[in-house]
């Protein structure tokens, strides 16, 4: 019998980010899995009623499954700290640096991981210095193809692959639609994988490596959340030493970023078998098509039991 059975768990899902729908699906999935373990669960949205609800009826633990800001940037978790409510997942400071892709890349590069060469461009700098001149210099420095993305985002929203100079300006605009700062980085060709990390008795363990093969070639929003639009292989069809390297990279990222309980590293493994770090997620997607639950199942674990154990850890 777990402690999680004794109290009420609140799953936070929804929120006002562009990943609201994904979050609602993640929340529903995890709530259902916890209920199957006999745990009393409520799913609450992040809105004006939340504070009053948490104060009036204090849950024993909160499971934030909010994607995008302010769930992944640590803001909501900071409020849970103020309320003295335990929650599953990383603390606000670690969330803040993980959610900011260039900050996270610098931290994991310092820990020895390979990260694509990149340039960070604010929309204001871009305008003040003149878009054409800046883009010409960026392309001369990094070469083509490139990937442009918002520094703080998720689900590939605002992410473009740029294969010709002519595509670069529109890609910048697409990224700026999701935030004031964009990162332009070298495109890494190879096998895309997602590696979940799960702490078991406080020790981070890498889950089986999930290989992602989108039908359309790019793992965009549609490829992620449309059933059948992407093929997944668990474990990834890579040699054992490469799988081990990807797992080690995810664990290095988890530790270097100071993450807690669970995380997911998005990597591309190049033709030499080297894993390149793209980003780390503090609130991995938990939808029917998300990679983290697939990795949990491939490890022979049950999602409800996994989350219940993290709830117990958070409460203690
Ligand atoms: N440097 C890169 N090289 C090749 N593909 C990339 C690169 N960066 C991102 N991608 C592709 O874009 C997708 C989204 O990028 P990612 O950095 O994971 O941001 P997010 O998932 O937060 O939107 C990745 O899953 C991958 O398919
Ligand atoms: Mg990603």
Structure write-up:
The protein is of the alpha+beta class and 316 residues long. The chain folds into three domains: 87 residues, Rossmann fold; 145 residues, D-amino Acid Aminotransferase, Chain A, domain 1 (2-Layer Sandwich); 69 residues, ATP-grasp fold, A domain (Dna Ligase, domain 1, 2-Layer Sandwich). Helix content is 39%, strand content 22%. The chain is built from twelve helices and 13 strands. Strands 8, 9, 10, 11, 12 and 13 form a six-stranded antiparallel beta sheet that branches. It has a four-stranded antiparallel beta sheet with strand order 4-7-5-6. β8 and β9 form a beta hairpin. α1 crosses α12. The chain starts with 7 loop residues before the first strand and ends with a helix. Magnesium ion binds next to loops.
Topology:
Layout: E1 8-12, H1 20-36, E2 40-44, H2 50-56, E3 61-64, H3 75-83, H4 92-99, H5 101-110, E4 118-122, H6 123-129, H7 131-142, E5 146-150, E6 160-162, H8 168-176, E7 181-186, E8 191-200, E9 203-206, E10 210-214, H9 221-225, E11 230-233, H10 240-256, E12 262-269, E13 275-281, H11 291-298, H12 303-315
Parallel strand pairs: 1-2, 1-3
Antiparallel strand pairs: 4-7, 5-6, 5-7, 8-9, 8-10, 8-12, 10-11, 12-13
Helix pairs in contact: 1-12
The structure holds adenosine-5'-diphosphate and magnesium ion.
Counting DSSP E segments of at least 2 residues, the number of strands comes to 13
Number of domains: 3
**CATH homologous superfamily title of the largest domain:** ATP-grasp fold, B domain
Number of helices: 12
Enumerate the distinct ligands. adenosine-5'-diphosphate, magnesium ion
Shape type = globular
* CATH architecture label name of the largest domain: 2-Layer Sandwich
What is the C-alpha radius of gyration, as a whole number of Å? 19 Å
What class would the helix/strand composition place it in?
Answer: alpha+beta
- SSE order, one letter for each helix or strand: EHEHEHHHEHHEEHEEEEHEHEEHH
Sheet with most strands:
6 strands, antiparallel
Rounded to the nearest angstrom, the distance between the terminal CA atoms is 15 Å
CATH topology of the largest domain: D-amino Acid Aminotransferase, Chain A, domain 1
Helix content: 25-40%
Report the β-strand fraction as a percent range.
15-25%
Mean pLDDT: 96
Unreliable stretches, pLDDT < 50, 5 or more residues?
none
CATH class category of the largest domain:
Alpha Beta
